[in-house]
Design brief:
It is a single chain. By secondary structure, the chain is of the alpha+beta class. It contains twelve helices and 26 strands. The protein has a six-stranded mixed sheet with strand order 16-17-18-19-21-20, with helices on one face. A hairpin with a 7-residue loop joins β20 and β21.
């Protein structure tokens, strides 16, 4: 059985995809986060840097957005961006999130994704996903979509479209066109800088991206979120609407479906391999570094083969972890050095095969003489590391600790699913203040005590008599 499981509380939203009871996708977003990827803004050109071949656009958030305007970018952009001046008005869409001190990256190419299709604004192109390998089906989809294209509207058929009926596709076209018309209307009337169109939040995005004909059910534990999802899917005319279920169990939803431990494991940066080796995943300002180690694996006999086996298993697990943790950007893997060229070639082939199966655009370098492999994977939004961890203010070496939102979420779930019990929470001031702000005393079930310290993880939840 394939299942989408979505959970929400006042602090975070979590979503998981399970296949035959095994966790295959996990996403987490803090409620306090500004999720802007996919949003459309009416922006004002604040500054143009010819040395960087970039324009910095005020879209109404804390940091100016970055718009590439060099020759390589211009071939994929509108003619109007070639001669930009300060204070010019542009309609733009965010395609890469803010990272640390850097503002988001934007494009003038605006797309509106649905379950089966992507509407292309100001573009009459008709195409299909490369994942649709049935040439006849691809041509049928193109012929169908051409009926609805206009001089300034095109479509790309997503992978899931090959399993949809033409009636379902027609309903989605009407829905996407209505959004596009609203964008046009607001772009003419609203004053820049401003938000014109907001991309649906995590629950809807998960359903849109991962619900297909192989999905058996979508289970949501929050009633408001359940109703919003139902309304959205009804408007889209999606069959996924029939798969929605509201969870009302007496224990946390992920525990009920047996994946709580798997999710907990994502909090660790060390992953033990079945053969006794292990990998360590570290995030830096610029990239993810993944180190492969032999661990308890015996290297006494046939050392070359043993090292290759460790690296091979590590390769599969690394791609599994990349998907689970939603890692994007630049990833550098330090494999154990291999002497034989045939082993290096086999490992490169495995990595390239795994990259081809990835849902995101992923590029693999060859293995360097130092055993390093570079992976470039399209980044969609904040990854698990961004959501689960904060930099510890008390650590001189920039150590990471659980985020306040994640700690508060754990506390809330423990209290929520305990019947008729009264609790006393002893925690740092930051945790206590955030809990009070979001949930108060939880109908007199919770009292607070502030303890000294900087680590949000160091809390005590006592059951009071």
């Amino acid at each position: 059985m394939t299942r989408l499981i979505i959970s929400s509380n006042p602090f975070i939203t979590k979503a998981a995809k399970t296949q035959k009871g095994k966790l295959s996708v996990f996403l987490l977003r803090k409620k306090s986060d500004l999720a802007i990827v996919g949003n459309v803004y009416k922006g004002v050109v604040n500054n143009i840097s010819h040395s960087l071949n970039a324009a910095f656009i005020n879209i109404g958030i804390d940091k100016n957005a970055f718009l590439c305007i060099d020759k390589q970018c211009i071939k994929d952009m509108h003619q109007t961006t070639r001669n930009l001046k300060e204070n010019d008005i542009l309609l733009v869409q965010v395609f890469k999130p803010m990272v640390s001190t850097k503002g988001p990256k934007i494009t003038t190419h605006i797309t509106i994704p649905g379950n089966f299709l992507v509407l292309l604004r100001d573009n009459s192109f008709i195409g299909t996903s490369k994942q649709i390998t049935d040439i006849e089906k691809s041509e049928q989809l193109k012929k169908f979509l051409k009926q609805f294209s206009e001089h300034n509207i095109g479509f790309i058929a997503r992978t899931a479209s090959q399993f949809a009926t033409f009636e379902e596709l027609k309903k989605e076209i009407e829905y996407l066109k209505s959004i596009n018309e609203n964008i046009t209307k607001l772009s003419k009337t609203d004053k820049a800088p401003c938000l014109i169109y907001e991309e649906p939040q995590l629950p809807i995005k998960v359903i849109r991206e991962y619900c297909d004909t192989l999905t058996d059910e979508i289970v949501i534990d929050d009633e408001i979120m359940y109703k919003n999802a139902k309304n959205y899917l009804s408007a889209m005319g999606s069959d996924c609407n029939q798969k929605l279920k509201l969870y009302k169990g007496s224990e946390p939803i992920f525990k009920h479906f047996g994946i709580e431990k798997d999710i907990k494991n994502l909090e660790s940066n060390t992953i033990i391999l079945k053969n006794g080796g292990y990998i360590i995943i570290e995030k830096t300002e610029a990239l993810f570094a993944i180190d492969v180690n032999s661990g308890r694996y015996s290297l006494e006999n046939e050392v070359d083969n043993a090292i290759f086996e460790i690296n091979k298993e590590a390769a599969y697990e690394i791609f599994n972890q990349i998907a689970l943790r939603d890692i994007g950007g630049l990833i550098v893997i330090d494999f154990i050095d291999m002497e034989k060229e045939q082993h290096k070639q086999k490992l490169e082939n495995i990595l390239k095969q795994l990259a081809e199966k990835d849902r995101r655009k992923t590029y693999i370098s060859n293995i360097s003489e130092f055993g390093l492999v570079e992976i470039s994977r399209r980044k969609s939004d904040n990854d698990i590391f961004d959501e689960m961890f904060d930099k510890c203010e008390g650590c001189l070496n920039n150590g990471f600790v659980k985020s306040i939102a994640l700690v508060c979420s754990e506390i809330y779930e423990n209290i929520k699913h305990s019947q008729d019990k009264h609790f006393k929470l002893s925690a740092t001031a930051s945790v206590v203040e955030y809990m009070k702000e979001k949930v108060g005393n939880m109908n007199n079930k919770l009292e607070y005590n502030i303890i000294t310290g900087c680590n949000a993880e160091e809390y005590f939840l006592e059951v009071m008599e």
